Amino acid sequence: MDLRVSISPLQRTIAGLVEGLLHSSMRVLITGGAGFIGRHICEHFQHRAEVRVPDNLRSGFESNLSGLKCQLIVGSILDRDVVKEVIKGVDFVFHLAAMVSVQQSVQKANECAEINAGGTAIVLEEAARAQLGCNLRRQSNDSKN
Ligand SMILES: NC(=O)c1ccc[n+]([C@@H]2O[C@H](COP(=O)([O-])OP(=O)(O)OC[C@H]3O[C@@H](n4cnc5c(N)ncnc54)[C@H](O)[C@@H]3O)[C@@H](O)[C@H]2O)c1
Questions:
Q1: pTM
Q2: At 28, phi and psi to the nearest 5?
Q3: Which domain holds residue 53?
């Protein structure tokens, strides 16, 4: 059974969040953009903003971005220097880089914590350092968030 969410409510959410603020010279950073959700967000921003995608291709695929105009930076969000570099001049961050598999998160709990908690902390800290203010959005599994 495919438990993955339909993308249209997500796209509506994105539209509600940033559409009114967008202009063509804006830059959007999508961590984990070569994954399932990130690829759709990347597609949404085609011809709307410049898109940067840092992704280490752990579970994502370069082919997910084929035909899309975006800059793929193959690297990990655990590498602070990578995050520092890609976040420069960015207006919005969609943070989707994660270990998503429940099975893997049980089998590799430490690595999961490192990516999902540690990686998020690095992205948040570098976003704050780059003075992104409150424009950072993280996709959550919790429908109340
Ligand atoms: N797919 C869904 O239905 C769904 C629903 C609700 C929430 N979410 C959340 O959305 C987020 C993305 O989910 P997804 O389904 O697109 O997963 P996915 O596995 O397809 O995408 C995750 C991406 O993160 C990348 N990645 C992993 N570790 C990385 C690292 N250290 N540095 C850089 N990139 C890294 C992977 O290569 C992959 O491209 C997750 O937080 C997930 O919990 C997904």
A1: 0.85
A2: -120, 130
A3: 20-138
